[in-house]
C-alpha cells in the first residue's frame, strides 16, 4: 500500500513546480483604465494550446491552476491544513477506509452547466479507466459512490488517512464529465477549456495567453482584475529585466542579491518575499555502499558544512534548514519543542571528533581505512544555479575542517535524476521531505519498503535507508490523523533522524515571490498572510488575483 500511495503522491508533488515567473505588459485598451494583470512562465519561447491537465505530452499550456480547481485547499500558511474548496466539507471514517466529500451547491461550469458529484466520480476514476494519462490512480481505490448530486464517497481497500492532501493538487482537479466523455482524454488537447475556475480563455497565441475573469464565479467577485495575460520567456535574466522595466506585475524567481538588484531599484514598488515550502534542500547519502554507511562519517561530513555561508553565496533569502529536514515554520507544531526552531550550524569540533570515532583517517586529502583509500564524490545537478555555487563551497569546507578532498561530479539534470534513482552516488544533491502531508513526506524519504538494489531505479528513499524502528513508527503514523498521536510519532522519527543522519538538510526550500506593485496593490503581508501569492499554487494564485486592486493613481 505504501509504495502505491507514495507513487501517487510523488506524481502529484512533481506535477507542481515551485518556480514561476512574469513578463511583458500589453498596453491597456483605455489608457486611464487598469484591468489586466501581466505575468508569465519561463523556460520556453512559446506556448502550445493544450489545456488537458492529464495529457501525457510534455508540451502543455502553463498555469492550469488558474483554470481548474481541486476539491480541497492545502493551506501552506497554517501547517498544511486541508480546507474546503469545491467540497464544502469532508470526513474520513474512523477506520480510514471511507472519505466523504460534501460538494458546494452553488458551483457551475464555465459553460453554465451545474457542477455535480458525477463530475467528481468521472474525474477520480479516469486514471483507472483510461490508460496512458499523465496522472496516477488513487492508491488502493476500491470504488466511488455518489448517492446524490452533491455527495461523493470514496472507498479504499486499505486505510488512506494521508491521501486527503492529494485532493488539493491539480492532478486531481475536477473536469466536466459532459465535455470530457465525448473526447479521447489521452489525445485531446482541450483548446477551449470548460472549468469551475475563475478564468476562461479569451484568446491564445504562442506568445500570449489571455484569460478573462468569469462573471459567474462561485467564490465571488474580483476587486479589479478583469484579465490575466501570460507570456513566455526563455531565461530568468530576461524575466528579471521585464519586471525591472515595469513590464511585469508578478514573478516567482529566486533573485541573487535581491536587496540591491531588485528591491533597491525601486523600494516603493519592488517587493521580494520568501515563503516556506515546508521541506528542505540538501544532500542525500548512499546508505548501502561506501564510507557513508558509517554514521560517524555522515555526522562528520554534515557537521563540517556551514549552511549560512552557503546561503550568502546564492543570497536569495533562504535560511539554514532544520536538521530533521522538516521546516519548523510549517511543521513546528508537530516537532519536539527543542527541535522545532533549530537551524543547522557548522560544528568543526564535532566534525573532527566524529571522523575520529569512525576509524577512518585522512592522508593527503584521502579518506583511508585499513590501508585502503575511499574516494568521496558529491553529485550535483549542473542545471541548478545554486548548487553550481554550493558544490565547490562544500568541497572547500570539507577540506578546511577535515582535510578531505571531495570530488564534485556536476552532471546535467537528466543524468542527475538517473543517478539519484539508481543509487549510483556516494553523496548527491536532493530535495528532502517534500510533500503536503507529514507522513507522506517522511515515508517517502525513510521507509525501507522502497529500497531497491543499486542500479535499479527506486521511486522513493533513493538513499536506501533501512531501519526497523523507523518503519514501525511510520506505520503508526499512517494509521492516524490525530494531532497528538502524530506529534508523538513525528517526535520519535525526528530523534532517529538527528541521531543517524540519513541525509543532510542544508536550506529550507521556499516559494519566491517578486512583485512590481506599480499597477496593482493588495498583495498579502507575509507577516500575517493566510495564502501564498505564488503563481503556481492551486487556489492561492486565484485568491491572490481576486484580492488585487488598482494602485492609487492608476
Quick synopsis:
By secondary structure, the protein is α+β, with helices and mostly antiparallel strands. Among the domains are: 2-14 and 58-190, Dipeptide-binding Protein, Domain 1 (Dipeptide-binding Protein, domain 1), CATH 3.90.76; 278-509, Roll (Dipeptide-binding Protein, domain 3).
Detailed description of the structure:
This protein has helices spanning 2-15, 117-129, 177-180, 236-244, 258-261, 295-303, 307-314, 328-331, 348-358, 385-402, 413-422, 438-446, 468-478, 483-500, 540-546; strands at residues 36-42, 72-75, 81-84, 87-92, 98-103, 141-148, 151-156, 199-205, 208-213, 227-233, 250-251, 270-285, 361-363, 366-369, 372-373, 376-381, 406-411, 427-432, 503-516, 520-521, 549-550. It is built from 15 helices and 21 strands. Helix 6 (295-303) runs antiparallel to helix 9 and helix 12 packs antiparallel against helix 13 (468-478). It is 27% helix and 22% strand. Among the domains are: 2-14 and 58-190, Dipeptide-binding Protein, domain 1; 278-509, Dipeptide-binding Protein, domain 3. The N and C termini lie far apart (56 Å). Residues 1-31 have low confidence and may be disordered. The strands form 6 sheets. A 6-stranded mixed beta sheet has the order 11-19-12-18-16-17, sandwiched between helices. With 554 residues, it is α+β, with helices and mostly antiparallel strands.
Amino acid at each position: 500500500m505504501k509504495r502505491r500511495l507514495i507513487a501517487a503522491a510523488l506524481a502529484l508533488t512533481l506535477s507542481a513546480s515551485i518556480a514561476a515567473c512574469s513578463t511583458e505588459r500589453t498596453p491597456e485598451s483605455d489608457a486611464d483604465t487598469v484591468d489586466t494583470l501581466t505575468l508569465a512562465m519561463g523556460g520556453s519561447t512559446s506556448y502550445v494550446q493544450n489545456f488537458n491537465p492529464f495529457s501525457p505530452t510534455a508540451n502543455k499550456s502553463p498555469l492550469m491552476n488558474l483554470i481548474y480547481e481541486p476539491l480541497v485547499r492545502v493551506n501552506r500558511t497554517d501547517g498544511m491544513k486541508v480546507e474546503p474548496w469545491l467540497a464544502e466539507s469532508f470526513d474520513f471514517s474512523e477506520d480510514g477506509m471511507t472519505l466523504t466529500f460534501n460538494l458546494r451547491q452553488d458551483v457551475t461550469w464555465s459553460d453554465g452547466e451545474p457542477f455535480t458529484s458525477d463530475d467528481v466520480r468521472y474525474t477520480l476514476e479516469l486514471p483507472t479507466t483510461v490508460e496512458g494519462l499523465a496522472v496516477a490512480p488513487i492508491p488502493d481505490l476500491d470504488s466511488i459512490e455518489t448517492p446524490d448530486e452533491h455527495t461523493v464517497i470514496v472507498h479504499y481497500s486499505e486505510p488512506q488517512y494521508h491521501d486527503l492532501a492529494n485532493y488539493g493538487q491539480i492532478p486531481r482537479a475536477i473536469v466536466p464529465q459532459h465535455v470530457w466523455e465525448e473526447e479521447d482524454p489521452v489525445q485531446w488537447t482541450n483548446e477551449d477549456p470548460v472549468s469551475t475556475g475563475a478564468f476562461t480563455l479569451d484568446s491564445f497565441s504562442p506568445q500570449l495567453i489571455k484569460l478573462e475573469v468569469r462573471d459567474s464565479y462561485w467564490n465571488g467577485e474580483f476587486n479589479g482584475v478583469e484579465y490575466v495575460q501570460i507570456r513566455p520567456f526563455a531565461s530568468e535574466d530576461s524575466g528579471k529585466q521585464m519586471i525591472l522595466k515595469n513590464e511585469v506585475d508578478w514573478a516567482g524567481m529566486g533573485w541573487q542579491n535581491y536587496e540591491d538588484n531588485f528591491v533597491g531599484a525601486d523600494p516603493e514598488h519592488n517587493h521580494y518575499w520568501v515563503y516556506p515550502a515546508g521541506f528542505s534542500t540538501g544532500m542525500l547519502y548512499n546508505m548501502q555502499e561506501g564510507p557513508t554507511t558509517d554514521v560517524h562519517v555522515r555526522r562528520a561530513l554534515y557537521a563540517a558544512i556551514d549552511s549560512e555561508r552557503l546561503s550568502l553565496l546564492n543570497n536569495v533569502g533562504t535560511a539554514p534548514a532544520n536538521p530533521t529536514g522538516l521546516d519548523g515554520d510549517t511543521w513546528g507544531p508537530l516537532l519536539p519543542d527543542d527541535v522545532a526552531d533549530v537551524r543547522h550550524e557548522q560544528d568543526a569540533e564535532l566534525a573532527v571528533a566524529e571522523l575520529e570515532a569512525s576509524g577512518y583517517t585522512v592522508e593527503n586529502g584521502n579518506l583511508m581505512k585499513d590501508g585502503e583509500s575511499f574516494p568521496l564524490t558529491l553529485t550535483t545537478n549542473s542545471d541548478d544555479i545554486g548548487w553550481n555555487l554550493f558544490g565547490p563551497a562544500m568541497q572547500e569546507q570539507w577540506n578546511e575542517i577535515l582535510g578531505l578532498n571531495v570530488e564534485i561530479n556536476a552532471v546535467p539534470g537528466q543524468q542527475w535524476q538517473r543517478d539519484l534513482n539508481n543509487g549510483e552516488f556516494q553523496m548527491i544533491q536532493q530535495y528532502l521531505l517534500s510533500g503536503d502531508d507529514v507522513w507522506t513526506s517522511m515515508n517517502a524519504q525513510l521507509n525501507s519498503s522502497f529500497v531497491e538494489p543499486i542500479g535499479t531505479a527506486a521511486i522513493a528513499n533513493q538513499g536506501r535507508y533501512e531501519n526497523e524502528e523507523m518503519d514501525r513508527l511510520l506505520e503508526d503514523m499512517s494509521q492516524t490523523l490525530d494531532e497528538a498521536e502524530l506529534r508523538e510519532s513525528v517526535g520519535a522519527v525526528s530523534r532517529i533522524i538527528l541521531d543517524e543522519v540519513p541525509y543532510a538538510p542544508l536550506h529550507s526550500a521556499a516559494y519566491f515571490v517578486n512583485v512590481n506593485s506599480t499597477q496593482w496593490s493588495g498583495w498579502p503581508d507575509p507577516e500575517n498572510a493566510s495564502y501564498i501569492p505564488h503563481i503556481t499554487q492551486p487556489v492561492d494564485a486565484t485568491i491572490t488575483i481576486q484580492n488585487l486592486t488598482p494602485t492609487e493613481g492608476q
